[in-house]
Fold this protein.
Amino acid sequence: MRPRLSFVLFCLLTAWLMTGCDHSEREPKRSPTATPPANPNELRIYMDPIGRAGLLNRMMVQEFSEQFGIPVQIISNVDDATDRLDKITQILASRTSGIDILMIDFTWAPMLHQYTEDLAPRLGREKDEFFPQLIRQNTAQGKLVGIPMYVDTGILYYRADLMEKYGYSEPPVTWEEMAAMAAHVQEEERKRGNLEFWGLALAANAQENLTCMALEWQASAGGGTMVTDGGRVTVNNRGTVEALTMARGWIGKIAPEQSLSMDNEAARRQFQEGNALFMRGWSYAWELLNDDTSAVRGKVKIALLPGGVGGRRSVLGGWQLAISASSTRKDNAWKLVQHLTSARSQRLRAMEGGFPPTRPKLYEDPNLQRKQPHLPLIGSAIGSSVMRPSRGARNLYGQVSMIYFTGVSDVLAGRSNPEVGLDVMEAKMKRALER
């Protein structure tokens, strides 16, 4: 018999739905610790406690505790992904039993495999129920480091009302079409008095998100990736030059100069306030854009990202659960990982939070499709995804990505041209990987 949500969990969910979930509110963070808990049966999980994802995480953890009688403490992580990786590495490297389960990024398996339990024997044949590329990306040195909890991918949001208003029946298929539509609608909207309107909301500040976007441009232009699975640096090629030249042409023309300092949330706010035609974003934004307080509620649709000679490519992101090799509570930890990554939990997470499942079968669920009509398209984007090269860069992926997004930022800002910028990126990546 499927366990029901407790009354407390129901109230939590109802309160969130009634308030629309204030995503600006932050809980005070506990300092992560490697000290074992006072209760020897208590599990400790290091994961996101804030926002929509955090509420659902807390609900599911509490449900698990009620069902199995196992106490669980959520240890708050830090906001910045780089800081989070550093803190997780410190915790795992201490090789104490203070933290049992960790919520890890899509690219971290090669950097954490020596500190984590191999979950392949526990998962068994159930691995076939997950997207195979997610299992592959979470495998390092023959070890399955993490079980995918939810996935994310780059998609194009667009104002369907404005597209129709200016005579466009379909979203753009190529980047050139997107730029032309953006320039046209921007000009017309400004003529009608919205001087803050831009064709494209773009989160192009120098951080990991820029790596994701630039890799999408590069791959769709036929430039492949920046490092192969075998560790060969391939960033410097004609396709990447063309991709960066194209994106540089957007800045100040269809996207504001401020894009170079905007993160995902700043771009989302610009779009949600009605001041852009297009936005390259992640799937989590769908629920926020259709919130009761949104200026664009009911006016937004999504599409695959535009493409070029290399096709329409999206970078995958998402979060997984790993078990510390030093945990003394591995059996109970595995029960919690199973609970949080189960088809039932993923269905709830997708239904109430808009977080795409990591199990392809759920994309066929008619109830989910009615609540989240964009899910089939996200499933298609996952099928045509491009991976960040953490397998090839191994434990140096963070350094390689920083070289990449810093170099791309220099090109977008006009501090370097694409050819020179890529020469510098290539040289730095080769030096880093040869150490």
User: Anything to note?
Assistant: The longest strand covers residues 314-323. The chain has two domains: 7-145+317-383, 155-313+388-434. Residues 1-10, 14-32 have pLDDT under 50 and may be disordered. The longest helix spans residues 51-68.
